[in-house]
Amino acid sequence: MHTAAFVEALLSRSIVHLIECDATLRTSDDPETIHEARVAVRRLRSELRTFAPVLVPEWANALREKLRWLSDELSRARDADVLLERLRNDIANLSETDRNHAEDTLEPFVRERIEAYARIHTMLQDRRCAALLSELREHVIPSQNAHSTLFERIASDGEKPAKVLARPLLAEAWKKLRKRVRRGGDNPSDAELHRIRIEAKHVRYALEACSPILSRSARILAKKLEKLQNVLGEEHDAVRTCERLQQAALVPESHKVVHELIALETTAAETARSTARKAWRKVNNAAELKSSH
C-alpha cells in the first residue's frame, strides 16, 4: 500500500471513531465514555504528530491545536474520576472509625467532578466544537474521485510504499523515547517519569497505527510499551492524588484520614516506580528483538 492511501485510511478511522465518541458523549455521563473520548482525541493527535513529515504542516498543526482544547476538557473530567476512584478504594482499607470521616474528605473532590462534567456539556454546545466536528466530517466524506479531503493533506512521499515511510518515522519516535529515559537517569523525578510516559504512549500509538504493515516483533513491542505506560500512569496518579490531598482545604476532623490516605498513595507511587524499571527493561529487550529482525 502506498503512503497516501495508508495515512488517509488511518486518519479516517481515527476521525470516525472520535465522531462516534462525540455522539455518545451527548447522551451519556458514563466515566468510560469520557475515557474513550479522551483516548480517541489523544490517539488522533499522536497520529498527526507521527505522520507530520508527510502532511501539510499548516493543516496538521492547526488540527492538533484544535484537538488540544477537547483533550484538556476531557482530561479534567477523567482526572476527577480517577482521583475519586483512587480515594474510594483507599478509604475502603481504613478502619471503620476513619471511614466515617471519609465523606468530608471526598466532598471537595466530588464537587470538582460535578463541575468538570458540567464543563463537558458546555463544551459540546460550544461553536468551536461544532465547527471542529464539521471539519472532521468533511475530511472523511469521499469526493467524486473516491478520495476524502485527507488525501489532499499528504504533502510528500505519497507514492512511496507505506512500510518504507513508516520505518524512519518509528525510529525517530523511539529515539526520542530513549533520549528521554537517559535524561531521567537512575532516579528520575516524578515530572520526568510523566514525560517518559507521554513519549512511551506516542511510540505505542505509532506502532499500533502501523501494525498492519509491521512485523510481529513490532506488535510485541507495542504491548510492552502499553504495560510501561500503565505502570507510569499509576505512579503519576498516585503522586497527583497525594498533591491534591495536600492542597485541598479540608476540615480539621479529616486530617488524620488525609494523612492515612497520603501514606497509602505514597506507597502506591513507590511500588509503581520500582515496577516501571522492570517494565522499561522489558521494553528495551523487545526493541532489541525487533531491530534484529
What does this protein structure show overall?
The two termini are 21 Å apart. Helix 1 packs antiparallel against helix 2 and helix 2 runs antiparallel to helix 3. The chain has helices spanning 3-25, 31-50, 57-91, 96-100, 102-125, 127-140, 162-184, 190-209, 216-247, 255-291. Helices cover 80% and strands 0% of the residues. It has 2 domains: 1-159, CHAD domain (Alpha solenoid), CATH 1.40.20.10; 161-293. The mean pLDDT is 89. The chain has 293 residues and is mainly alpha-helical.
How are the elements arranged and paired?
Elements: H1 3-25, H2 31-50, H3 57-91, H4 96-100, H5 102-125, H6 127-140, H7 162-184, H8 190-209, H9 216-247, H10 255-291
Helix pairs in contact: 1-2, 1-6, 2-3, 2-8, 3-5, 3-9, 7-8, 8-9, 9-10
Domain count: the total is 2
**CATH homologous superfamily heading of the largest domain:** CHAD domain
Task: Give the overall average pLDDT.
Answer: 89
Q: Helix and strand succession? A: HHHHHHHHHH
Cα Rg? 21 Å
What are the main properties of this structure?
mainly alpha, 293 residues, flat, CHAD domain, 80% helix
In short:
By secondary structure, the protein is mainly alpha-helical. The chain contains 10 helices and no strands. The protein folds into 2 domains: 1-159, CHAD domain, CATH 1.40.20.10; 161-293.
